[in-house]
Amino acid sequence: MKLIRTRELLSRYPWLDTLRMEALGWICNHGTSFFDRQYSVVRIMAPGAQTHLLSDGKPVIYALYHGCMIGVLGLKPRKKLTVLVSQSRDGEMIARGITGLGFSVARGSPAKGGVKGAREMIEAARGGQSLIFMVDGPRGPEFKVKPGIIRLAEMTGLPVLPVGLSSRTAMYMSSWDSFMASVWSTPMAYVFGEPIHVPSGAPDDLQEELRAALEIAMSQLKATAESVWLLSK
Q1: pLDDT tens, 57-105?
Q2: 138: cis peptide before it, omega within 30°?
């Protein structure tokens, strides 16, 4: 008996894909309220992060690991956040889901549509949006900060705000990014580091220095977020 792959089935019966997308939209539209009701959040902020997020309220570029994508749900207000999502098939599913959750989406990645994605992110920043960037996406290596976020900060003038995230209880997928699937209603910890400013016209060597500094900061914030649960025992 020949097995039919999901893609073959969807291409043969397009209405199934439409039904799937409608179901995804319904789940995502209700997912934000579910997250807000069920997942308690602990936030720890460096002084500079407090200034930007609580006092000034000015846009920033949130830097997260790809495997901590669930963390975007704890960033608010969602309608003021734009997420960069790749133009791959998987990216299409993620984009539709994120839009259903109340975020704006820019499409592009280094492999495909990079210029388009950058333009959309720049336009969003000019419109007063904060941006969300997965520093090691879309294909890894895991925890390796790529230079794209530094270039984006230089072009938009927005500071990069690194975020460390952990869940008290989570399952980790066997994917390249070790995707963190937080267990239902588990507490989550967000640790916001000091913002990193990239001056306009920064030369390549300075951009590389700032990229390396961000990589170190992200690693430290991840460790701090994970230590929260050790201290609470």
Answers
A1: 789 999 999 999 889 989 989 899 999 887 776 677 677 777 878 889 9
A2: yes
The helix/strand/coil state of 75 is coil
Between CA 222 and CA 229, with CA 226 as vertex, the angle to 5 degrees is 155
DSSP 51: I
Phi first, then psi, for residue 38 (nearest 5°) are: -100, -25
42 found inside a domain: yes
- Count of domains observed in the chain: 1
Task: Give the pLDDT mean for 134-149.
Answer: 92
Residue 83 lies in a domain: yes
DSSP 41: E
Work out the pLDDT band at 29, boundaries 50, 70, 90: low
- CATH number of the domain enclosing 81: 3.40.1130
What is the model's pLDDT at position 2? 38
Q: Which residues pair with 63 in a beta bridge?
A: 133, 162
Contact 137, 91 (CB under 8 A): no
Nearest alpha carbon to residue 45 among 177, 230, 224:
224
Burial class (CB in 10 A: 0-12, 13-18, 19+), 21: middle
| Residue ranges making up the domain that contains 131 | 15-231
